Every structure is written in structure tokens, then in C-alpha cells.
What does this fold into?
Amino acid sequence: MTTRTAPGPRERLLDAARRLTYTQGMAVGVDALLKAANVARRSLYEHFGGKDGLIVEVLRLTTAEDEEWYRLTMRGAGDDPRARLLAVFDGLAEAIDTPDFRGCRYLAADLALADPAHPGHAVTREYRECVHRLLEDELRRLAHPRPEHAATQLLLLVDGALAAGATRPGTDPAASARELAEHVLDLPRHVAA
It folds into this structure.
């Protein structure tokens, strides 16, 4: 006989923080987090040292999942680097069209965490660097003349599509970003780096 164990306080806090910081923002109160997780205040401090530690751990978990989303999305598009890069924008369009879409968790975190030394900023910075590397690697496979610069441009288009998707519903920002991405990808091969 298999016994199923209920999630412990740590997992319940992570789940509640993941949901509430995305739907209500990073300023969600500790009391709301504790109530949603059905845990005592002591659990928050024992497992995370406080709300900031919980936020950092949620960002670590979600960035790992989102980095994997980029890998899977590109892998699912086949071997052609151009198709793999454009698949990112097709995937963003699908995400933006979901009813619970609230924008980019990491942009929201960076804007809400006013203290530049907050450890959450290091997590979001590492995430963007990872995504940049993934894009840059595909651009190198494409023999793009300026892969690092083009990856920066594509990441800007990703951020813009996610922000517009949250603030201007119904405008299809991922399709516009995809069209602009095609121009970045099609930069003539003879252009000097």
C-alpha cells in the first residue's frame, strides 16, 4: 500500500508564494502568504528566514522552469536555428493568450524590489544571462554576423512582448515581436561584426 503524504509547510509556502507573487505582485503581504499556505509565521522564518528568502527561492524555482521552457521550445522546433529562435515567439504568443497571464514575473520582480541589493535581483539577472546565452548559441549556429548583439535584441523583444501582453491585451504583441525578430535574424551575412 502506498501512502501519500501531504505537502509540508515549506512546499505549501513555495506554492502560495509562487501563485500570489505572480497574481498580486511582490508586495503581497506576509499574512496573505501564510493564510494561503495554511502555515504558522514560524514556518516562514524556519524555512526561508523571512519573506525575502521566500521570494528568492520562488524566483530560483521559476527561473529554472522557464529556462527549461526555452530549451524545450527550441528543441521542439527541430534542428534549424532560425526556426528554433522563432518558435520562442510562437510559444510566447500561446503563453500570453492564457487567461491567467500576468506578464513577466522577473520584470515585475525587478520593478517591485526597490532595494538594488535585494538578492532577488541576482536571480533575475542570472536568468536573463542564461536566456541570452541560449539565444546567442542559436544565433552562432545560424552564422549570424553579430550573435551577441542580436541575442540582446531578441531578449528585448521577448521582454517587450511579455510586458505588452500584460498591459495591452488583444494586441498580439508576440506576433509583432516575431516579425521584428525575423529582421534581426535575417541581417545580411556580409555585415561586419
About this structure: DSSP finds nine helices and no strands in the chain. The chain has a mean pLDDT of 93. The first helix runs from residue 9 to 23.
